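Now for a typical sample entry:
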Amino acid sequence: MTLIQQKICQHQMLFAPASLLDQVSSDWFEPDHWRALGQLTGSAPGRGTTHFIQHQQHAWVLRHYCRGGMVGRWITDTFLYLGIARTRVWQELTLLQYMQDLGLPCPAPVAGRVSRHGLGYRCDLITVRIPGATDAHHRLCKASLSAQQWQDIGATIRRFHDHGIYHHDLNIHNIMLDDQQRVWLIDFDKCGRRRGNRWKAHNLSRLQRSLHKEHGKNGDYHFCMDDWQALLSGYGQGKNV
């Protein structure tokens, strides 16, 4: 496993695989830096804005960590600092690297930043952008997925589960399909490794609820129970460890 390493710059800690550590700087985590270079190619709204970067031959995604829920209404992006290993970005970066080493279809880590502010911190993450990928939610807003695609989604989730990878927010927005119809999972904030099996059914239920929620908001959403049964069929067949 290629370890994530760190360097300290004033009140900031920067993280990257060893091969990138000498190149990464705090500017990398500032959208205005990439905008000034003409290398900011787009953005996507969400809990926090996600920015897309084209740097030399690299296509990257920059994300600033924001809070959700009730607390997020008053404290948008600051977290209590309890040591570097418990920061959100460190945990996500190291999990992504672990999954990369297993060959799982997830974004490759590029770099992370923790900025200390008294007892709190803010953080940012850069990952490799998945080429030619669109999230499954946007596809379902336009057209149905085939039974094979639903089976592939189920089999992909099973691969992560068989390796003990728990996805905290397994919803249809965090499932991607690329232009080769390969399935990817994204957004591993607050995720991790778990033992046992009971959590796996809850993970699937979380995904099913998100599909029903989107279907309820949009009468033209291309999802039905036959699709869910196809996903479960793929999940049951997807023994890939």
DSSP finds six helices and 13 strands in the chain.
